[in-house]
What does this fold into?
Amino acid sequence: MAIQKIKALILRSVNFHETSRILTVFTEEYGKITLIAKGVRKSKSQLIGILEPTNIIQAIIYKKPNRDIYTLTQAELLTSLTKLKQDLKKLYLGYAILETILKLTETEDESPELFKLAANSLFFLNKSGNNNWNQLFFFWFEFLKLSGYQMNFFNCFRCEKVFDNGYKWRFSKFDGGILCDNHNTSANIPIITKNAILAIQKIKTSKLQSVTSFEIANSTALEVTKHIELYFQEHFENFVGWNSTKQLSEVLREMQKNPVKEKIQIDN
It folds into this structure.
């Protein structure tokens, strides 16, 4: 391949030998690729601090024949998400976006739509206030849509009964939807709370720019994460879950924050 100019989101950066780094990036032009950045850890390197996860760069790369790895020759920082990197919760949520792409996309499977979705999701996550779970959930649902999957939280997957709070609902990872009392008799199908269903409905009917207009409590967000993770595990081979959200869950428990007041409620 000749020398190419790319726009890339850095997914992972690993030290290599004494002065270099191996980068996994998702590019607008080629999808997920691996780069070697030689000598970038030297004290005089102009790329120190640029080649970090969540950064978006414009870069010059090339690949020698019969090699799977590209060589990075130049890079310019396009986007650095300062607020995200200063907020531990936002950082873990941002890492979950990166982890999704890292684990669930194929090498050199071009998807400009996914690149745009990831870049915009990180941008709005960086800007968000307390409602930052919403950005991650929105990203996951759009990622599923781009991958050919849909999840239904508006009516029973089997009989199409419209959701209401008069029933005990369960979530089927096989069907990718909720089941009403008439179809949820199996104890192996986990119960899903009304607040989790309502939160998901709000997210799935929102646009990216407005998805943070409502607040989800951490307890509800962790439940939503559990159900979505079960669905991903069922439909993506060898996927075992997100390390980022597990670590965030542990951090939240340790901090013992007071739960935010639920913004999504149904009167009994």
